[in-house]
Amino acid sequence: MVKKNQTLGEFIIENQEAFPYSSGELSRLIRSIRLGAKVVNHEVNKAGLVDIVGNYGETNVQGEDQQKLDVYANEKFIQTLINREIVCGIASEENDDFIIIPGKKKDNRNKYVVLMDPLDGSSNIDVNVSVGTIFSIYRRVSEIGTPVTKEDFLQPGNKQVAAGYIIYGTSTMLVYTTGSGVNGFTLNPALGSWYLSHPDMRFPEDGRIYSINEGNYVHFPQGVKKYIKYCQEEEGDRPYTSRYIGSMVSDIHRNMIKGGIFMYPKSSKAHKGKLRLLYECNPMAFIVEQAGGKASDGYKRIMDIEPEELHERAPFFCGSKNMVEKAEEFMEKYRDKE
Ligand code: AHG
Ligand code: MN
Ligand code: MN
């Protein structure tokens, strides 16, 4: 049962049976992400301060070399994930190849793989605008006890057992799904505890926000150009309003609360768009669908794409169901004019 304001710890214990396979391991995995998020949150919050007191941005207050925050976040999440003997492999935006985790025990039963974007929207860090972390969790498909293989990571999004994001915003939130709805927890920084602030999040079926980098307009496919014009037309509840932060997590989080569509289509400059299928599109798609929204590449469901490469990209349209369907209508109508 979902009770507003209960802590994440209480929530995990109470809802353990609802977790796929309910062995308790997935709960422990979520707990390690919760810990990594707190550590990264602490660092993100003092990003400006370190700049002020650091030596021309080369050293921090402790005299250590300053790291780029996405590298820092990557290391922290990897550390916390490795520590608990649940994860057998990690793939990250920051690592060219996946990491095999041998496990400390001789008989290594670890069965989960995690794919992540440790810091999403990192260009926003320097300007004090919210950033995020995205994670996606699968059960391995190769034999337990052997080193993980590429196939363990190249699974379609519809095989995810859990996915979530952390948003380091005006407050810090952890939003995740294990396949039975979406719940959002807000960090109380004074206590270091997460409270269920957004139980059972639902994506409004309709919305009035469209989020896209319109600077790329001339390079967009005809369907996207026409859909943007449709959003701007004076008709019924239109024109819609345009909002684009440039941190996908924040853009989608806002749209999930207010209703809207987020698009990162392909363009004549980038034939598969920019966003990475495995650790950006798929986890966000899982969350969005679990909240009643829709996620597609403009023509078909994102989570049904069979991945071929760890860092492959995909065009991404996600958000309020009716808005995504409308955008798909335009894509289909102008399909031959791409
Ligand atoms: P990352 O910081 O992990 O590289 O991801 C940035 C992504 C995404 O968060 C955002 O929506 C998009 O890049 C912004 O790209 P443009 O600047 O091309 O609009
Ligand atoms: Mn990203
Ligand atoms: Mn990133």
Can you name the CATH architecture of the largest domain? 2-Layer Sandwich
Gyration radius, rounded: 20 Å
Uncertain parts = none
Provide a count of the helices. Answer: 9
Please estimate the helix content.
25-40%
Global morphology: globular
Q: Report the count of strand segments.
A: 13
> Could you give me the name of the CATH homologous superfamily of the largest domain?
Fructose-1,6-Bisphosphatase, subunit A, domain 1
CATH class of the largest domain: Alpha Beta
**Strand arrangement across the biggest beta sheet:** 2-1-3-4-5-6-7-8
Structural class: alpha+beta
How would you characterize the largest beta sheet? 8 strands, mixed
What is the residue-mean pLDDT, rounded to a whole number?
Answer: 92
Give the percentage of residues in beta strands.
15-25%
| Count of separate structural domains | 2
Termini Cα gap: 48 Å
Oligomer: single chain
- Please name the CATH topology of the largest domain: Fructose-1,6-Bisphosphatase, Chain A, domain 1
Short description:
The chain has nine helices and 13 strands. With about 350 residues, it is α+β, with helices and mostly antiparallel strands. It folds into two domains: about 190 residues, 2-Layer Sandwich (Fructose-1,6-Bisphosphatase, Chain A, domain 1); about 130 residues, D-Maltodextrin-Binding Protein, domain 2.
